[in-house]
Design goal:
2,3-Dihydroxybiphenyl 1,2-Dioxygenase, domain 1, 5 helices, single chain, globular, 18 strands, 311 residues, alpha+beta, eight-stranded mixed sheet
């Protein structure tokens, strides 16, 4: 093959490769960055006592605001540490019987931790089980407001560790969550779940149970994921016929209101009924929130932390 023919052959090959790449199918789930797992929302009668109980017994540090416990350093940018977020609800039912059954925490020495909890009067509902090389040592406890807590010994991944779902079809449920919110399917010591890798490892496990109730009204109220681009994720979820329970195009927090100029304090004056747009200074990162209902009645929150997302 002479030089001219070789150049023509290479040119045709390049065109063929470009054409194939252009026609390569792109799935909907590959068109956006899957949101990282963000937080677990707990319903409690009073926030400060619940926050302090978890700080004392489960670890972590005060999070973005005083109603939160964070598990990781707060930097104000992505990836944001996992958080427990407390909300006031006086009549929340225990987590047992809900699709969101229990929250998992890991400690480097489970026997020592259980002894300390018992000394502090914490209710241990199931003593330590040691499966040997076939899994983590684990026990179950209950917080004062009826939330089941699974305590495991996973020294390489200490802190907020996992959430346990009880659903009708674990495989179908886990497939849905991977499709909607990313993560990696994982079988960990025989437990089927999803593994999220951000600042730390976090697992969503699912077991079969055909009798559980939706999470609304229980002490573990909902789970939250934190997309960087909320609109793109919502558009993708609409292709799955997701049931949204709030406006899918929310305004950023904090909300702004029109107020009479005279109510803005000294110097406002009377300007003939003119109203001004007033936005309160937020006590946390601006964010946008959308709510939806996942399979089996799991309440889900999508929260876009605007400043942390680089907006």
């Amino acid at each position: 093959m002479n030089h001219g023919a070789r150049r023509q052959h290479i040119f045709r090959l390049q065109i063929a490769i470009c054409t194939c790449l252009a026609l390569w199918p792109v799935t909907a789930s590959a068109q956006y960055e899957a949101p990282p797992f963000d937080s677990i929302h707990l319903a409690v009668p009073e926030i400060s006592s619940a926050r302090d109980w978890y700080l004392q017994h489960m670890g972590g540090n005060i999070g973005e605001t005083a109603d939160r416990v964070a598990f990781g350093n707060w930097t104000g940018d992505h990836p944001i540490p996992l958080q427990l977020i407390f909300e006031v609800k006086a009549d929340a039912k225990p987590s047992a019987g809900s699709v969101l059954d229990s929250i998992g925490f890991s400690f480097p020495d489970l026997a020592e931790k259980v002894r300390a909890l018992q000394a502090d009067g914490v209710k241990i509902t199931t003593p330590i089980t040691d499966p040997g090389k076939g899994g983590w040592k684990h026990a179950f406890a209950e917080d004062p407001w009826g939330t089941k807590l699974e305590l495991v010994e996973d020294p390489d991944n200490v802190g907020l560790h996992h959430i346990n779902l009880r659903v009708k079809d674990p495989d179908a449920s886990l497939k849905w969550y991977v499709r909607a919110f990313g993560g990696d399917r994982a079988s960990v010591y025989g437990r089927e779940g999803i593994r999220y890798r951000d600042l730390t490892l976090f697992y969503v496990f699912a077991d079969k149970d055909e009798s559980t109730e939706p999470s609304a009204g229980h002490s573990i109220d909902r789970l939250a994921w934190g997309p960087i681009d909320l609109d793109k994720v919502i558009n993708d979820l609409k292709t799955l016929n997701v049931q949204f329970s709030s406006d899918t195009n929310p305004r950023g927090y904090p909300a702004c209101n029109f107020v009479p100029s005279t109510s803005l304090g000294a110097g406002g004056g009377d300007e003939g009924g003119i109203r001004r747009l007033f936005c309160a200074q937020p006590d946390q990162l601006p964010h946008r929130i959308v709510y939806l209902v996942a399979p089996d009645g799991v309440r889900v929150e999508l929260v876009q932390h605007l400043e942390a997302g680089g907006h």
